[in-house]
Amino acid sequence: FFSMRVISSIALLLIVSIGVSALEYPWTEWQEVGRSSGDEIVSFTLALKLQNLDVLDDLHARITTPGSPEFRQWRTMEELNEITKPDTFLVAKLMAWLSRHNLHAENYYDFIKVSGTVENVETAFLAEYHAYENLLRTVETVVIHRSAIHPTIPTQFQDLIVFITNVSNFPYPTRARYARATGADVGSYYVVPGTLRAQYGVPASYVASNANSSQGLVEFGTQAGVSITDLQKFMQLTGGDTSANLTYTVGNFKFTPVDPVDLESTLDVQYIMGIAPGVATSFYVVDGWIYDFTTLIQQRATDNQPNPLVFSISYGWAESDQCSIVGQGTGCGQLGGSSQTYVENSNVGFQKVGMLGITVFVASGDAGAATKENIHCRKRHDPIQPDYPASSNYVTTVGGTMYSSAQTLASPLPPFCTENKVTCAGSGTEIVSQVPEALITSGGGFSNVAPTPSWQVGPVGTYLKSGALLPPATEFNSSGRAYPDITALAHHFMIVERGESLSVDGTSASSPLTAGIFALVNDNILNSGGSPLGFLNPALYSAYLSSSDIVQDVVYGNNTTTEKSGVGIRPPCTTAGYGATTGWDAVSGFGSPNYPNLLKALA
Fold first, then answer.
1. Which entry of 264, 319, 387, 563 is annotated as an active-site residue?
2. Cβ neighbours for 155, distance < 8 A, ≥ 6 positions apart
3. CA–CA separation, 464 vs 556, rounded Å?
4. Which of 214, 391, 508, 588 is catalytic?
5. Could you tell me the pTM of the whole model?
6. Residue 438 to residues 149, 402, 441, 523, Cα–Cα distance (Å)
7. Which helix (H) or strand (E) holds 310?
8. How far apart are alpha carbons 361 and 320 in whole angstroms?
9. What distance in Å separates the CA atoms of residue 173 and residue 28, rounded to the nearest whole number?
């Protein structure tokens, strides 16, 4: 999630906008161009009904709870799948049925990966494939193949297959590059990696040194790209490693910006690598949505392929409307399930990822409590819809802040901070990032699917009784998983895109920078012979209750406003939301990182 401005050392420029209609419902970018050829190869995933989830939950508690004899004794994918594997008789029957239909299938226990010709898939699942061309990718033609009608789950397998992805659902929509003239509301400072090191106590000289230290980013869509030339120019301008490069990529990744530019990849890469030099960084492109991401990680683990120890995700959509974001506007029924079953299966995926020793950070969103689904506040009196995967109880969710006041960055200054009309911030006082002072309002709230986890009950209960701003009781689920868990700066970050310096706001900045900070914590742990952090939250909440100085409390602001969007014809609006207060709150979590104290508490 982010919004952007353009920076010039001489003048502040206007951003050119691309046209994307219906910003609240952006699934109009694919145009049908004809029936797919019968011999076209397509692939998709069958999500299966899992068993023994109570046993998995018990093991999860034992290996993630500080003080447990099994704390951080992470498991292999095979060990986890052995617990939850579906009915083996039914799976064998399904595999044989797929083979009879001349479809290639690989069984990964939680799910089955299937590929085959359009003709055979249409026969097996009563689908009707068409070719769709992307209307926004003007430099390079992008064509995908999807069924114009929803696949039918065969009757004999309806107790086994929960839903099907990548048959009739579409890639995550391309986000608009909003027109925005920078003006007086920009503020007087820019954030660069040196700002973050000063604010969060990360030693400027620290470079990760453990060969197993790793971090990764994910983008959802048909393709993504990052210019290494831009990355290295960013490093030169901000005093970083000018030889920086990605270690490996997964999916349809290009080492060049992809039109239309949404800047997500650039922002993520430049700041996770800027704050965590020396940590091997990978980039994943997922042609699908959150469930497909969790299955990709599990598939790679099963196949003994590498995965990073820390991930940052800068995407989300309303929890109750998961499939519409990739479904041309229709819901999860097209996949054979519902938003709830989609979230539940994705949560089990995240749970297993954490039990492999991988830590996942997720941006809390940029449109306040309302989420982007309700960015124009049309649903004023409905229950607030939390963002997902921010509301998952198996990820660490990161909110966004801005400075209310800050010192200037101390010498020696990196080259960008010496340019005319540029002032870079050092340390300062953080408040909630909120429109109209910023371009975005930090997300936060309560899940309607996942209950409040045991490690969160105390802090959330205190917050609910604190007198802080809350929505009416009928508009949120006070017994749900509450988020965010932590927060960090999300306002006025400098990035480099196509050689040009830009100013960006968003929890797409706070999530990767926080992931990078914890990647450095991991580096210290690994150098001491310990196990990586894995699923972090039980240890994070326990550490806070023992010593609140692991974070810097954020006590001012709320998330009742949404996000500046479009070309200014729709001003930001307000809905019910949550207020910041002392201790944990549903806008900033516990507060922003204090790296030295986090390291002491978690290492």
1. 264
2. none
3. 17
4. 508
5. 0.92
6. 42, 8, 7, 33
7. strand 310-313
8. 21
9. 8
Query: Whole-angstrom Cα distance, residue 2 to residue 367?
Result: 10
Instruction: Find the mean pLDDT for residues 151-178.
Output: 83
- Of 268, 319, 505, 553, the active-site residue reads 268
Q: Distance between CA atoms of 234 and 579, rounded to whole angstroms? A: 35
Question: Residue 40 gets which letter from DSSP?
Answer: -
- Check if 268 is active-site: yes
Q: Report H helices in 475-571.
A: 507-527, 537-546
Segment 440-463, tens digit of pLDDT: 899 999 999 899 999 999 999 999
Overall average pLDDT of the 120-141 stretch: 90
Comparing C-alpha atoms, which of 263, 183, 279, 313 is closest to residue 494?
263
* Cα separations in angstroms, 439 against 370, 389, 491, 508: 15, 22, 8, 13
**CA 475 from centre of chain:** 25
Scanning the structure block, which residue is given the tokens 């970018």? 29
Q: Quick check: 568 pLDDT over 70?
A: no
Instruction: Indicate the DSSP class of residue 332.
Output: G
CA distance 409 to 407: 6
Phi/psi of residue 282, each to 5°?
-120, 165
Cβ contact 597:591 at 8 Å: no
Q: What is the CA radius of gyration of the chain?
A: 23
CB 578 within 8 A of CB 587: yes
Whether 505 is catalytic is no
